[in-house]
Amino acid sequence: MSKVPQVLTVAGSDSGGGAGIQADLKTFQERGVFGMSVITAITAQNTTGVQGVHPVPIDMVKMQWTSIFSDFTVAAMKTGMLVNGEYMRAVAEAYREHPGIPLVIDPVMIAKGGHPLMEETAITVMKEVLAPLATVITPNIPEAEALTDMAIKSKADMLETAKRLQENGSKNVVIKGGHALDEEHADDLVLLEDGNEIWLNSPRFKTKDTHGTGCTFAACIAAELGKGESVENAVRTAKAFIQAAIQNELNIGNGHGPTNHWAYRKEQS
User: Fold this and answer.
1) What's the CATH class of domain 6-263?
2) Tens digit of pLDDT for each residue in 133-146?
3) Domain coordinates in residue numbering, the chain
4) Which is the catalytic residue, given 16, 177, 214, 226?
5) Which helix (H) or strand (E) holds 235?
6) Which of 29, 244, 252, 258 has the greatest count of CB atoms below 10 A from its CB?
7) Between the CA atoms of 47, 28, 103 and 141, what dihedral angle is there, to the nearest 10 degrees?
């Protein structure tokens, strides 16, 4: 039996390569795990925005899932773009058959350019059906607000939101601070299952090349959990990984460019 951790991403495809399935698989490779995918949607997408979204028929999504689990030993998994409530319910139902696998949920709702990637009615399903299954959930501030019906204006609000998500069932909550009002810092809140509160502080880098940061961050957490790391260590590594990816710009495309997935490895070498 292979000792290589095998990690699954359930998400949409980004034709521009900066987010979604492509970002997840790049991150898995960089973190030394074998990546697999269940593709929920195909997007026509580049750094300037999303030109189109074509959902993969849900029967094909289920078939991909069955194929993976019939042959691979999934050590951890993450979800990204799940199209709508029907897809979320399908993923939740399938996951309940494998409840011991660490599940990282990136509640993807809106692309960087403002294009909605989650239908309005799906937010309720995310809140009530999928989010309660999360080992780790990683909303940004707008997503956390939508999931808790609460405005976030301060760090105290971030903590209260995290507590509400935990009360809803998510074991560990990471509220990402990239959308915070602080112009100098992007501080993330980690609320662990045991109630331990951790703030991960970093300077805010002046760059427009942040496409796929949420996907990459969550994928790195899943990769580390797949290797047997603790949630705290996994999140700390993911924070360092995405910080390096943002800081070392690639200058690709004419809009919100992709991050540099190999930057953290080069920093460590």
Assistant:
1) alpha beta
2) 999 999 999 899 98
3) 6-263
4) 214
5) helix 231-247
6) 258
7) -30
